[in-house]
Amino acid sequence: MTSLTPTPTAPSTGVYDIVEAAGMPTGAGNMKPQYDERLANEDLAPLRKQKWSAYNIFAFWMSDVHSVGGYVTAGSLFALGLQSGQVLIALLVGIVIVQYFANLVAKPSQKTGVPYPVVNRAIFGIRGANIPAIIRGLIAIAWYGVQTFLAAESLNIVFLKFIPGSAALLDVSFLGLSALGWISYGILWVAQFLLFWNGMEVIRRFIDFAGPAVYVVMIALAVYLVSQAGWQNISFNLSTKQLDFWSSIPVMCAAIALVVSYFSGPMLNFGDFARYGKSFAAVKRGNFWGLPINFLFFSLLTVITASATVPVFGQLITDPIKTVEAIDGWFAILLGGLTFVTATVGINIVANFISPAFDFSNVAPKKISWRAGGMIAAVGSVFLTPWNWYSNDDAIHYTLGLLGALIGPLFGILIAGYYVAGRQRIKTDAMFTMDPTGPYWYRRGFNPNAMKALLVAGIPAVFLGVFPKLFADMGLFDISWISDYSWFIGCGLGYAAFVLFERLDPRVPTFDGESDGVSDGTIDGAAATAAAEPPAISAEIPVAAVTGTTAGPGTP
């Protein structure tokens, strides 16, 4: 079937039917009659209304930042030989880079009202977009399992404190995880799935609550530890190494790269959330408060809390779960344990559940709904037994290297395709047709320039992200430091290669001289709406939904 044979308009559906728009009310996704059923369902179709405020985006990043993994990542920088001030500088510089790139990837999705994998159809081709979708989805499955495991560790502490007999379950194991671990993992697996199953509006309300809740506990934990230690007894010189100024420069650069790599996953598919933003300006405001401002405050709390553990417990503890466990008070363990469970569930939902839900739905929209895509991720995460490989330092290193190496090229190609080759102009409806004469069909549904750029960038990025450490472990030569920059290498190569191929053989259309049905990211939303929309429609559709046509992205 092609767009030449229109599909029926989406029927009236039940609450959990396949065409329901990602947990939104039925009809929230505008399923136009000409959309091909092999490319569209209500989950993927342009939104009729975009309602998220800057606070909702801010809360999204709070949920992403306020996690055990984020705390441990920040605390681990001390082991590199950096002083507290240098750690804070590295964290802030890294997160400003993340903010800049998040704004770049947000714009095409916010302007068109479609998620990340659909935007890729304009760059990679109607069929080619499945390649980045599957790559991102598989990465999310791996990290979904890891984050659920970390949350289960927090829940274990609560069980051990309040049900002493549960300690016996630690002696029984299956596939490398104790019986207690399986119970905690199962509880959280079900809880997260139920939260996800209730849709994006419920998820939005959850992350609006989760981020501030973690702040309350983090502040209380810092105040308690500082009061126990005495401010005069706290030293912020936590590094076991002493580096001079020039020696610290490359280490700080590596720390900055680590921060960017840590956020590279949610940064790549941030369009899945930016599509809900009221306006691009609101998304940018949310990114500003949620990234540099929020992350700086969170990092200060992390540094203060970690520093206070030395005089209080006699050792540096960079894991908040172990910090709460060391306090050994029933209230602290209950409050801290449940809070860090909430924090980890928050980041898992936004970073590792939403993405594969859209990604896998994009592969077969007629058969895989948003909820079915999330179910694939949840089930797949168990089969990976994340507790086995995450406890291995080498496995973590190789995974981070591979993560950055695969995500970097995808990011670079997307940015080059939208901002350089496509000049921020996308024909939204054309992303939902299998018509061989359509502008995004390219060659059999694949943009050859994107495919070549992915190979040119992906192969060296994966090699540099994985093999240097392997060579060092084999005792050959040590250039493992280059792996820290795998994301930047992949991103830069992907961007440069795609721009070069498009200049040699232009493929991505710019629709010069056209306005009907074209989303133009260079036009201010309010101005475009005032010029193009009748008053009745502009009152109904948020101005951010404007795509350069006579109405918003989801308007018939």
UniProtKB/TrEMBL annotation:
GO CC annotation: plasma membrane
Main location per the UniProt record: membrane
Entry keywords, A to Z: Membrane, Transmembrane, Transmembrane helix
Transmembrane helix found in the keyword field: yes
InterPro entries: Pur-cyt_permease, Uracil/uridine/allantoin_perm
Gene Ontology terms for molecular function: nucleobase transmembrane transporter activity
Location relative to the cell: Membrane
Pfam family, one: Transp_cyt_pur
Transmembrane region(s): 58-81, 87-106, 133-152, 172-197, 209-227, 247-268, 288-310, 330-351, 372-390, 396-421, 453-472, 484-501
Topology within the bilayer: Multi-pass membrane protein
Domain of life, per lineage: Bacteria
Keyword Oxidoreductase in record: no
Homology family: Belongs to the purine-cytosine permease (2.A.39) family.
Name of the protein in its database record: Putative allantoin permease
Gene it is expressed from: pucI_1
